[in-house]
């Protein structure tokens, strides 16, 4: 039997967790799926799946074979693309992950522009703040706002994320307005779970840097949650300017400490390999670089 098809069937079974789901996805009969799986196990010389009444799971040999099948299918797909006259034209599905706040404030507009420019592409956008395994979760691009990238990651800086200390008028009416970074120690500061939880950093007009320990009664792993809490008068937060700027313009939030600039962070695109980068991923990275530069010039990020 066709080993490429057998590999494709095995990958589909592994990803969907059942032979019925794989048959439906591949528009193939269950009997044919069973035959291809048997051919794949004969080729591998090992049992690839644990079969139970609830769900199929991979054996140790299945884990190894799955990785090899994916590599083989990538090569096979690359061969088909190379034969086309428009091999360099962006096409296919891009799976992207980023935080909800970044997606709402910036990425949705960029993705819309990308899809209009490259009609043969599609995007699967997943909102998450956790660090993902790009290979295991089949993510093409992860966007992260940070100043502490792990050294083993392949990343490209796409922009700069400016920040602003802000609070609702209702909170300031109750608790007063801080005029110096040190004043924040006496306020309820809402913090981000993963970084900058207890130390906010500023640069004053003379270029001198200051670090201020802060604390409060709410922390979260998503900027969007903190922004809503601040809008409701729960406390003071250090927010990405791209998220807070619309509320500041509407008067729902007040930007604080105008003489002090909070530490900026980098916006990075993280991907799995620089080799044989798909045209769609390369085009998305180039578009995002231009997009974030434009937004920064307009003072939105």
UniProtKB/TrEMBL annotation:
Record-annotated HTH lysR-type domain positions: 1-59
One Pfam assignment: HTH_1
GO biological process: DNA-templated transcription
Keywords: DNA-binding, Transcription, Transcription regulation
InterPro entries, per database record: LysR-type_TF_proteobact-type (IPR058163), LysR_HTH_N (IPR000847), LysR_subst-bd (IPR005119), WH-like_DNA-bd_sf (IPR036388), WH_DNA-bd_sf (IPR036390)
Molecular functions (GO terms): DNA-binding transcription factor activity; sequence-specific DNA binding
Domain of life: Bacteria
Gene3D superfamilies: 3.40.190.290, Winged helix-like DNA-binding domain superfamily/Winged helix DNA-binding domain
The family this protein is said to belong to: Belongs to the LysR transcriptional regulatory family.
UniProt protein name: LysR family transcriptional regulator
Species assigned in the record: Duganella lactea
């Amino acid at each position: 039997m066709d080993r490429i098809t057998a590999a494709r069937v095995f990958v589909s079974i592994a990803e969907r967790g059942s032979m019925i789901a794989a048959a439906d996805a591949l528009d193939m009969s269950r009997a044919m799926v069973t035959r291809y799986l048997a051919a794949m196990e004969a080729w591998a010389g090992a049992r690839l799946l644990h079969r139970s009444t609830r769900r199929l799971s991979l054996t140790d040999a299945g884990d190894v074979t799955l990785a090899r099948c994916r590599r083989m299918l990538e090569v096979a797909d690359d061969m088909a693309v190379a034969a086309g006259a428009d091999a360099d034209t962006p096409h296919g599905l891009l799976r992207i992950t980023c935080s909800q706040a970044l997606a709402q404030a910036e990425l949705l507009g960029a993705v819309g522009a990308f899809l209009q420019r490259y009609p043969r592409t599609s995007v699967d956008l997943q909102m998450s703040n956790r660090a993902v395994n790009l290979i295991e979760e089949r993510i093409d691009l992860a966007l992260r706002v940070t100043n502490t990238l792990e050294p083993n990651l392949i990343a490209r800086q796409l922009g700069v994320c400016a920040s602003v200390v802000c609070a609702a008028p209702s909170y300031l009416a109750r608790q007063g307005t801080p005029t110096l970074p040190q004043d924040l120690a006496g306020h309820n500061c809402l913090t981000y779970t993963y970084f900058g939880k207890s130390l906010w950093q500023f640069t004053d007009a003379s270029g001198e840097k200051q670090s201020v320990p802060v604390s409060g009664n709410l922390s979260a792993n998503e900027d969007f949650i903190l922004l809503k809490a601040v809008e409701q008068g729960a406390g003071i937060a250090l927010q990405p300017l791209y998220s807070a700027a619309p509320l500041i313009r509407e008067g729902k939030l007040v930007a604080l400490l105008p003489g002090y600039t909070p530490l900026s962070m980098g916006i990075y695109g993280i991907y799995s390999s620089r080799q044989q980068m798909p045209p769609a991923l390369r085009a998305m990275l180039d578009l995002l670089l231009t997009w974030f530069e434009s937004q920064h010039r307009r003072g939105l990020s």
